[in-house]
Design goal:
By secondary structure, the chain is of the alpha+beta class. It has one domain: Metallo-beta-lactamase, Chain A (4-Layer Sandwich). The chain has a seven-stranded mixed β-sheet with strand order 1-2-5-6-7-8-9. Strands 10-11-12-13-14-15-16 form a seven-stranded mixed β-sheet. Bound molecules: zinc ion.
Length: 270
């Protein structure tokens, strides 16, 4: 597997950085979908029911003004390959000045810090939705899974002063705009990059969610909001002719969606 993939969006350099790969049963991504409905779809897409492959695809963007990484992957403790593959791509973490977090699940914030708890991107502002921060750092949510507290401390609370909180639809740095995209988590954000690429984060966890926006993944905190957000994002992608990028989509993570009936089909590539 290639460690990184360089591509161009409207004259701006982007690089998909491979942080790793995993496979889970189809029920993980398409919960509560009857077998008769799901099996032909999986077969038509060459997917095995017991092991649907998934990737971790942090995205690097150099806008000319800013060097940005979107999501930091699993992190050193959990085998994340981000640092190794940034180095392979010739990108120095010290040059990155903006770290944007789509949401605070472990596979998106684990690389915020190094093993000893220092900032992995020492010269960067870190950006996250205010609602997302408040949710995951609330005592109520922390106490649901106390074993996660040290991880949340290390990658969020201990480095709070590095963070800037994002509210509503806002331009984080020139050329990169945050779009509220709740459902997968309460304060999840999507990002529009230079008016050309829509990073959907985990709003769509698998490309088939474009065609089946009502098929919910087990990871979603607000399953009734997810389909609404997916439809909003897919409409936006079509109307604005945006390349669509998903954090867990097959490497290198991007493709196009086109309307099909009242949903969309996915085609990987430019
Ligand atoms: Zn994820």
């Amino acid at each position: 597997m290639t460690g990184f993939h360089r591509f161009n969006i409207g004259g701006v350099t982007a690089v998909t950085i491979n942080d790793g790969q995993f496979a889970r049963p189809a029920e993980t991504f398409f919960k509560d979908v009857p077998a008769a409905e799901i099996e032909p779809v999986l077969a038509a897409n060459g997917l095995a029911r017991d092991a649907v492959p998934s990737w971790f695809d942090p995205l690097y963007v150099d806008t000319g003004q800013h060097k940005v990484i979107v999501d930091t992957g699993n992190g050193p403790e959990r085998g994340g390959q981000l640092m190794t593959n940034l180095q392979a791509a010739g990108i120095d973490p010290a040059d990155i000045d903006a770290v944007m977090i789509t949401h605070a699940h472990g596979d998106h914030i684990g690389g915020n810090t190094t093993l000893d708890g220092a900032l992995a991107f020492p010269n960067a502002r870190y950006y996250i939705g205010l609602e997302e921060w408040d949710y995951w750092t609330s005592e109520e949510v922390l106490n649901l899974r106390p074993e996660r507290i040290p991880f949340i401390k290390q990658n969020l609370l201990n480095i709070e002063s590095a963070f800037t909180f994002v509210e509503g639809e806002v331009e984080i740095v020139p050329g990169i705009r945050a779009i509220p995209a709740p459902g997968h988590t309460p304060g999840h954000i999507a990002l529009v990059v230079v008016g050309r690429l829509l990073h959907v984060g985990d709003a769509l966890h698998q490309p088939l969610h474009a065609e089946y926006p009502d098929w919910i993944a087990v990871f979603d905190t607000l399953p009734e909001t997810t389909p609404v957000t997916r439809r909003k994002l897919m409409k936006m992608a079509v109307e604005q002719e945006l390349l669509v990028y998903g954090f867990h989509f097959p490497f290198p993570g991007y493709g196009r969606v086109t309307p099909k009936g009242d949903t969309w089909t996915w085609q990987p590539g430019m």
